[in-house]
Design goal:
The chain is mainly α. It has one domain. The chain is built from 4 helices and no strands. The radius of gyration is 25 Å and the shape is elongated.
Length: about 100
């Protein structure tokens, strides 16, 4: 499993390092224990430490965006249907019932 993660991370690293992709340098402060964990992961995966941070941030951003989308879907589907939608659903159920009952 270790080698699979290493290969996957290395292929993404190679793919992501295109000359046309602008990058920005930044400085962050972390707890020492977290820094040591990231450093260990970078060595195990044979990646630059900065790439480990990028992968972590990409995963966080993807999770955040997925959560926003899920919240929007829950809001859209959680709303009570309006009168026209209720009427359409009732007619649809009635039509479906006639079809099903005719098959039995």
């Amino acid at each position: 499993m270790h080698s699979m993660h290493t290969h996957e991370a290395n292929s993404r690293y190679t793919f992501g390092m295109q000359k046309s992709t602008p990058s920005v340098k930044t400085a962050i402060s972390l707890q020492r224990q977290l820094f040591l964990q990231v450093d260990r992961i970078a060595r195990e995966q044979k990646l630059p430490r900065s790439r480990v941070f990028v992968l972590a941030l990409e995963a966080y951003v993807a999770h955040y965006q997925n959560q926003l989308l899920l919240d929007q879907l829950n809001e859209a589907y959680g709303q009570e249907p309006d009168a026209a939608e209720k009427k359409r659903l009732k007619a649809s159920r009635k039509s479906h019932r006639r079809i099903v009952e005719g098959e039995w």
